[in-house]
Hints:
With 280 residues, the protein is α/β, with parallel strands linked by helices. 42% of the residues lie in helices and 20% in strands.
Amino acid sequence: MNINFAINQGSKILKNKLIPNSQLDSEILMAKTINKDRNYILLNSDYYLTKNDLINFYRLIEQRSLGKPVAYLVKKKFFWNSEFFVTNSTLIPRPETELIVENVLQVTKSSNKINILDVGIGSGCILLSILKERENFYGTGIDVSKKCLNISKINAVNLDVTSRLKLYKSNVDKFNLGKYDLIVSNPPYIKKSDIKYLEKDVAKFEPRLALDGGLDGLSEIRKVIKKAPKLIKKKGKFILEIGFDQKNKVVNLLKKEGFYINSTHKDLANNDRCIVCTKI
Ligand code: GLN
């Protein structure tokens, strides 16, 4: 069977299972199967597949048909300017989280040698993208998940920023190491009772630990905001991702802890997603 035929078969299987973007997913999974990029498979569509290739391809198609996200099947996701290694222990980097990176670069335009703390580093996509952009910035990442720290480490090696990165397994309430010029965080902020309404791919396959924000969705955000003043230098910035309906509540929590709100930012779906504030 040639590449083109197999891709069309794969796409049909996915379409029957109501997977959106079935053709694209089938192409990406074929590229993964034969370890080439998408251009190669489109340019060599009459190339004949081995029996083993076919078995591997249909195995990936089957997993995708059950809802497993493509990023977990190909074990990578592009974010900002780099490709990140991901497994099902980390949240898949999302385009809206690039708002944090964008705002960090904006507020640190004339900064040098600053120390940044990422609370809940996950795959490392936020902090490592920043370190890659700014060659004299230093980063510290904490996470409660050892697996996430291992993945962040792999990504730091891939992006060649390990010499400027420290990683610690810690909960934010228990973390007392250092004072930072800037804190970033994309904590879990989905209401526990809303997790079941997320897209099936998310709810069934992404880590609860990275999504579950407790009864009102704010329990982890509250923890980070309570601790941030102790970890951040005076006039330091705090840039954080929030749920679409959390802006007012989070702004109030931040003000109560002594932060001045600089700006809030909407994502491409026009939802409030990112808050930039300063410790006064
Ligand atoms: N934005 C993610 C989602 O809606 C949630 C990420 C988070 O809780 N930090 O799936």
